[in-house]
Amino acid sequence: MEGDHTVGDLGASARVFSVGGFQDFRVLPAAAGNATRTVGSFATTNLEFTYEGISSTVHTQSIDNGFDEKMPFAIGDGYGDEFGYASSQHYPRGHFRAFKTMFRF
């Protein structure tokens, strides 16, 4: 889900990314005590603010994972989740801010 709004030289956008819960499993047989587990859902909110009031210049501030949500623990097949999270579904960086100035010439 996302939304953008601009007023004059100022702009803002917000994006919410969500991954629902899912079953995690090991390749080993269930008889060895390795049943499937449910990995919890995960949602992040990313914000971006822009200012274009200076000729040929755009200033941008972005905030990823604005509420610093921790990703759910997942360990299953040992390939895509060997670090304790499902790398195909979750991004481990946590709260992150960036500033950028872009010049056009």
Detailed description of the structure:
The protein is an all-beta fold and 105 residues long. The protein has one domain (2-103). The strands form two sheets. It has a five-stranded antiparallel β-sheet with strand order 1-2-5-6-7, with no helix packed on it. Strands 3-4 form a two-stranded antiparallel sheet. The protein has no helices and seven strands. A hairpin with a 2-residue loop joins strand 1 and strand 2 (10-19). The relative contact order is 0.22. The chain has strands at 2-7, 10-19, 22-24, 37-39, 42-51, 57-64, 96-103.
Write the layout of secondary structure elements.
Layout: E1 2-7, E2 10-19, E3 22-24, E4 37-39, E5 42-51, E6 57-64, E7 96-103
Task: Quickly describe the structure.
By secondary structure, the protein is mainly β. The chain is 0% helix and 46% strand.
Features:
single chain, 105 residues, mainly beta, five-stranded antiparallel beta sheet, two-stranded antiparallel ribbon
* Mean pLDDT over the residues: 83
Taking all Cα atoms into account, the compactness measure Rg is 20 Å
Main sheet record: 5 strands, antiparallel
Widest sheet, order of strands:
1-2-5-6-7
How many discrete structural domains? 1
By DSSP (H or I, 4+ residues per run), the number of helices equals: 0
Structural class: mainly beta
List the helices and strands in order.
EEEEEEE
Distance, first to last CA:
34 Å
- Residue windows where pLDDT falls under 50 for at least 5 positions: none
How much strand? over 45%
Number of strands: 7
Helix percentage: under 10%
Shape: elongated
